[in-house]
Amino acid sequence: MSANSDSTVHGNIVQRLYQLAPHEGYTQSLLADVRFMRSNRPLKNTAVLYEPSIVIICQGRKRGYLGNSVYLYDAQHYLVLSVPLPFTSETEGSLEEPMLGIAIRLDAVLIAELITLLEESGSHSVEEPRGMLSTPLEEPLTEAILRLLDALATPAEARILAPSIVREICYRVLVGEQGGSVRSALSHYGQFGKIAKALKRIHTNYADVLEVGGLASEAGMSAPAFHLHFKAVTQTSPIQYIKSTRLHHARLLMIRDGLTAAAAGSRVGYESASQFSREFKRFFGRPPAEEVRTMKASLDLLPPTHLVDIAAPH
């Protein structure tokens, strides 16, 4: 593809997103696993929790901060998460040039099928698994993104064509520059796979009593080994991960469902309202009521990758 043609494709993608995401915040597409993102302003130091997903920023820029690593995702790079991870994000956008993007939730059944077919072909090597990575956006993927947006513009094409284009996008990610790491992570092999299953358990049962010793036992690891491998994947300890998961869900309940801090804390497993408020303020930097007001004002209401679907169907 020539430079002019590439520029035309990108321009068409941006124009489509202006149409499909007319309002700031997150817009559900006609396909359940796809949402559009728009921010007309910069957003600094936003605590987010993404589930396994592909996040493609087509205009503007986002950075993710996890441990000591920085992950850039912009018009030239996309983000892939193979496990649910809490991290801090930063968004660059303005009224004149909004941040525009697409979030595609990774369907476990589809991914397993594609990985099996790739393994049977024997033409692709595997690499060290990673829970989160930023990788260059290549031409075939860019073209598939435009076709997906075109399909999502009408109900018939969204229903008939869009699912196969999402399948193609997932394939392109799995065979891309860092596809080996993505495939290894999503295959859930080895120690990484054991931690991935523990993370799923936490997200499914975050309101229950979760003992680290029990999680380690379920993973078939000693407690020290579980801590070591857990931190290698998430850049945090199991206790802190469980706490951040509960706090993110509580924030969502307050924003989406209008629950009070006490009710939200109780819903996610806190027995003490005062302890919940203390830990919430320590984690988000603001008391619950102030955080909810701020988030509603910025319209950064939901993580772009369907955290709401983990908390409760909609």
TrEMBL record:
<dbReference type="Pfam" id="PF12833">
    <property type="entry name" value="HTH_18"/>
</dbReference>
<dbReference type="InterPro" id="IPR009057">
    <property type="entry name" value="Homeodomain-like_sf"/>
</dbReference>
<dbReference type="InterPro" id="IPR009594">
    <property type="entry name" value="Tscrpt_reg_HTH_AraC_N"/>
</dbReference>
<dbReference type="InterPro" id="IPR018060">
    <property type="entry name" value="HTH_AraC"/>
</dbReference>
<dbReference type="GO" id="GO:0043565">
    <property type="term" value="F:sequence-specific DNA binding"/>
</dbReference>
<keyword id="KW-0804">Transcription</keyword>
<keyword id="KW-0805">Transcription regulation</keyword>
<dbReference type="Pfam" id="PF06719">
    <property type="entry name" value="AraC_N"/>
</dbReference>
<dbReference type="GO" id="GO:0003700">
    <property type="term" value="F:DNA-binding transcription factor activity"/>
</dbReference>
<feature type="domain" description="HTH araC/xylS-type">
    <location>
        <begin position="196"/>
        <end position="294"/>
    </location>
</feature>
<protein>
    <recommendedName>
        <fullName>HTH araC/xylS-type domain-containing protein</fullName>
    </recommendedName>
</protein>
